[in-house]
């Protein structure tokens, strides 16, 4: 059946695009003669416009914005015959890689979440061969999408964005990715079908995917699917194992909507603006102020419902993703310049952002953590985090020290113990108490799913899966 035979591009049953591999040394036979300089000049002259096909031009247009993502990740080391073992008791390091797409010249890159999941240090190789590090900014586990920020000091080329709203079965498509580590491998095919719902396993299913015949291999995950104009129309995500030319991509309009929501959620935790905006997923859809909260910075500084935002700082705004990206580098208390269209004319405004109030009091967060997870936590000192980062060569921004574990609780069942440092749950970081409150109050967590957690124990990063209680258990109160 399909759920047992579908795999993301990877080595292993459900490892997606993170895999280990090695390349054997091989001997290549070279031609006995090489062309002369005059022959090379003649050959270049013969590269006629008929050879520069739409496929060639499309790849040339998009390839500079495609990056290689690689690094090590910690995985559970389950011994043979112990498939049912639970708890973060043993682990091993494997090498993984995938692909990403630059969507903002400051270095913001879209990829699949499974490409960067559990990766200790995310490394990114750019189109020009430069390798640098990256930081996970936001993720949506259930949609298998992530946004990372590449550490660069220069503008990067960005992918031309298309739309998935007008795709046609049979039209030509191109995939670019790091297939089996061969960077910038390009393949071509057609759109085989639209609106596919594809189950992966009992707990994960992709919805409304594009089915394509282009060759997708391990390492392609997170890379772009292009139309013949070189515009990105999707993110390559999965293949059907055992079949030929059956692969899948997340449609671009869906990607833009989800990534925009991810960034908005991330920004709302950091900034208080009082703005709510409307807009579509495509370039040119624009951004309109839908609501301005009373007594908010937006209301105080003159923004009004109906204003069309055309610029934030120095960045033009053509859609909601542009707006969300423009807000990423803004700090609380910073004055931000807006250009808006109102009544047929452009108006320049300045808004000073604020620090958002805590979503819950500390005592409420502690109560939720104790009743729903079974842990007593407190913030870890910055000096401790710096020491961990130095010794482990990591870049954790914070964590929560486990000061107590309730017997019989989900945390106790998963082997969490006093002294562990909680780093994240369900793809979100737990740098402070406000982060934990946001996670426990999130609609995804209210339904009580199993959520992956990450801890540091004796300078080792481990993970497991918690069955978080859907509601606080009164019997668990201290």
From TrEMBL:
Residue span of region Disordered: 30-52, 273-307
Stretches with biased composition (Polar residues): 43-52
Sequence ranges assigned to domain PDZ in this UniProt record: 262-319, 362-427
Superkingdom per UniProt: Bacteria
Signal peptide: 1-24
Classification via InterPro entries: Chloro_Bact_Ser_Proteases, PDZ, PDZ_6, PDZ_sf, Peptidase_S1_PA, Peptidase_S1_PA_chymotrypsin, Peptidase_S1C
Keyword tags: Hydrolase, Protease, Signal
PANTHER family: PEPTIDASE S12, PROTEASE DO-LIKE 8, CHLOROPLASTIC
Similarity annotation: Belongs to the peptidase S1C family.
Protein name in UniProt: PDZ domain-containing protein
């Amino acid at each position: 059946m399909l759920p047992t035979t579908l795999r993301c591009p990877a080595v292993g049953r459900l490892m997606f695009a993170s895999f280990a591999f090695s390349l054997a040394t091989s001997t290549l036979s070279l031609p006995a003669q090489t062309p002369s300089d005059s022959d090379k000049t003649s050959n270049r002259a013969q590269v006629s416009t008929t050879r520069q096909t739409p496929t060639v031009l499309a790849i040339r247009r998009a390839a500079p914005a495609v990056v290689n993502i690689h690094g090590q990740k910690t995985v559970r080391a389950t011994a043979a015959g112990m498939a049912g073992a639970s708890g973060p008791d043993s682990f091993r390091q494997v090498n993984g890689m995938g692909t990403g797409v630059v969507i903002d010249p400051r270095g913001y890159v879209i990829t699949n979440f499974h490409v960067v999941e559990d990766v200790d240090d995310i490394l990114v190789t750019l189109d020009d061969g430069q390798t640098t590090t990256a930081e996970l900014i936001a993720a949506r586990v259930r949609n298998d999408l992530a946004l990372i920020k590449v550490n660069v000091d220069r503008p990067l080329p960005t992918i031309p964005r298309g739309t998935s709203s007008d795709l046609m079965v049979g039209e030509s498509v191109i995939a670019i990715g790091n297939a089996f580590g061969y960077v910038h491998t390009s393949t071509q095919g057609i759109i085989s079908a639209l609106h596919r719902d594809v189950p992966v396993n009992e707990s994960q299913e992709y919805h409304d995917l594009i089915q394509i015949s282009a060759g997708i291999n391990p390492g392609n995950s997170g890379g772009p699917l292009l139309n013949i104009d070189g515009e990105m129309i999707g993110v390559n995500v999965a293949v059907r194992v055992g079949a030929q030319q059956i692969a899948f991509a997340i449609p671009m309009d869906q990607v833009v909507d989800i990534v925009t929501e991810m960034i908005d959620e991330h920004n709302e935790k950091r900034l208080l603006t009082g703005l709510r905006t409307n807009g579509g997923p495509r370039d040119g859809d624009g951004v309109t102020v839908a609501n301005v909260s009373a007594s908010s910075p937006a209301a105080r500084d003159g923004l009004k419902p109906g204003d069309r935002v055309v610029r934030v700082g120095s960045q033009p705004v053509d859609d909601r993703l542009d707006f969300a990206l423009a807000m990423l580098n803004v700090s609380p208390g910073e004055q931000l310049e807006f250009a808006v269209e109102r009544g047929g004319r452009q108006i320049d405004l300045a808004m000073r952002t604020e620090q958002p109030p805590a979503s819950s009091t500390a005592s409420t967060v502690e109560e939720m953590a104790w009743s729903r997870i079974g842990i007593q936590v407190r913030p870890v000192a910055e000096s401790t985090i710096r020491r961990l980062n130095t010794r482990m060569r990591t870049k954790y921004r914070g964590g929560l020290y486990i000061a107590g574990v309730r017997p019989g609780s989900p945390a106790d069942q998963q082997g969490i113990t006093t002294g562990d440092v909680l780093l994240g749950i369900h793809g979100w970081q737990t740098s402070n108490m406000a982060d934990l409150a946001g996670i426990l109050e999130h609609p995804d967590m209210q339904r009580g799913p199993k959520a992956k957690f990450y801890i540091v124990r004796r300078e080792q990063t481990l993970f497991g899966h918690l069955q978080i209680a859907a509601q606080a258990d009164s019997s668990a109160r201290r």
